[in-house]
Amino acid sequence: MKNVKMVIRILLGLGMIVFGLNKFLEFMPMPEVSPEMGAWMGAIMATGFVMKLVAVIEIVTGLLILINKYVPLALIVLLPVMVIAFLSHLVLDPIGVPGSAVFLFFIVLLMIWNKASYKDVLKA
User: Fold this and answer.
1) Quick one: CA dihedral 33, 37, 38, 44, positive or negative?
2) Where are the domains of the chain?
3) Which of 36, 112, 116, 120 is the most buried (most CB within 10 A)?
4) How does pLDDT run across 1-59, given as a tens digit for each residue?
5) CB 101 within 8 A of CB 88
6) Per-residue confidence band for 88, with pLDDT thresholds at 50, 70 and 90
7) pTM greater than 0.90
8) What are φ and ψ of residue 24, in 5° steps?
9) Residues 90, 97 contacting (CB under 8 angstroms)
C-alpha cells in the first residue's frame, strides 16, 4: 500500500507540474474542445491572469506533492482548481472528463490517506 500511495503522489505531482508548465511554455498542443468549452476557456484567458494563476498553483502544488513536503496543504490548495476543471469538462466538454476525473480522484484519495492532517482544520 505504501508503494501505491507513493506512485499516486508522484503521478499527481508530475502531472500538475507538466500541465502547469504547459500553460506557460505551450509544448503540448491544446486538444479540440466543444464550442462551449472554447468560449469558457477564451473568457478565462481573456482576463490575462487567471490561467497564469492556475498554472502557478499547479506547478507549486505539484512540486510540493512530488517532494513530499506540505502535501496536505498542497492538496487543499489544488482541490478547488481540479473541481472546477472536472465540472467544466462535465458540463461543457464531456470528452475531457476522464483526464480531470483521474487527477481529482488522486487528490481525493491522497486527502483520505492524509485525513489525520485535516482533523484540526475540520473542528467546529
Assistant:
1) negative
2) 2-26+34-117
3) 36
4) 899 999 999 999 999 999 999 999 999 998 889 999 999 999 999 999 999 999 999 99
5) no
6) very high
7) yes
8) -95, -45
9) yes
